[in-house]
Amino acid sequence: MKAVQIVRPGELRVIDIEKPSITQQDNVLIRMTAAGICGSDLGIYHGTNAAATYPRIIGHEIVGVVEETGPDVTSVKPGDRVIVNQVVSCGHCYPCSIGRGNVCDQLKVRGVHIDGGYREYLAVPASDCYLLPDFLSDRDAVMIEPTTIAIQSCTRAELTKEDTLLLYGCGSLGSSIFRIARQICPNIIVAELSDEKLEAARAQGAAHTINTETENFLERVLEYTGGRGSTVSIDAACSKGSLMNLLKATGNAGRVMTMGFSTEPAEINQFLITSKELDVRGSRLQNRMFGTAIQMILDGKLDLTGAVSHTFPLTDAQRAFDFADTHDPSIRKIVLTFD
Ligand code: MN
Ligand code: ZN
């Protein structure tokens, strides 16, 4: 069967490997039908993802059809369409013991630390498979994974209806967060450098928008919050100055969420955090949020159609990655297909 492997940074190969078989009683064999390309996949390709090891079959936005099940499996059956949990945790370390397996001490992320879903077949535990709603296409279902990341950050931020959320950056990560946050609180300020994205955020219900390139960011935040700053700020831009900007723009007793993976030092100061008693929290991956995301879709609260802008066959992965690297404005989500 075919698979896409990043041999080393900068080198992508379509390889032939043996089709997996079910070796564990609780495993299922999945025939892949769609796999998303994420910013972090591009990072592994370019060698800028500090977590990744090589060579690696990448892909963590994993959708397919159950082809075969092990003798102990009761939750899914052949023919079921599923999305696969990307987080593999040990179950007994300190984070796992307090229910936070997404930051397990032995964390393995499919497509990052262990082989992922850019391959025709994949064997995984049945407990990592989540049934897809019938009305959702396989390629749209890929968007459930970024949705779980968004739910995780809003959950870690303890976002409530009363909050004033400052969302910094509204690209692919930010717009997923926006969609979830909008379900929770009406008062959202979106800061971005693209007018087009700000326009889209307004159309989807952002209370205020700030162009970080042409407007005075801090002045605008204070203006839109009656002078006190946001109560919650989420960094979905993860750029060099973004954390410092958010520490300044967040009001007393607020929460500031980081989501970036940069290992570059960023300049901040303790006074901003101490004097306002801010909670600065990281949000990584997702902690059992697939069920939550799928329930939102079933309840009609979340519509994932239209987010996928381009598809490429698996064997054209090089072309897909080259295209992603052009940052063409028409790109929203690129999906690899397997037909
Ligand atoms: Mn992703
Ligand atoms: Zn663990």
Automatic annotation (TrEMBL):
InterPro entries: ADH-like_C, ADH-like_N, ADH_Zn_CS, ER, GroES-like_sf, NAD(P)-bd_dom_sf, Zn_alcohol_dh. Its cofactor is Zn(2+). Pfam families: ADH_N, ADH_zinc_N. Keywords: Metal-binding, Oxidoreductase, Zinc. Residues 10-336 form the Enoyl reductase (ER) domain. GO terms for molecular function: oxidoreductase activity; zinc ion binding. It comes from the Bacteria. The keyword Zinc applies. Belongs to the zinc-containing alcohol dehydrogenase family. This is Zinc-binding alcohol dehydrogenase family protein. It comes from Candidatus Copromonas faecavium. The lineage of its organism: Bacteria, Bacillati, Bacillota, Clostridia, Lachnospirales.
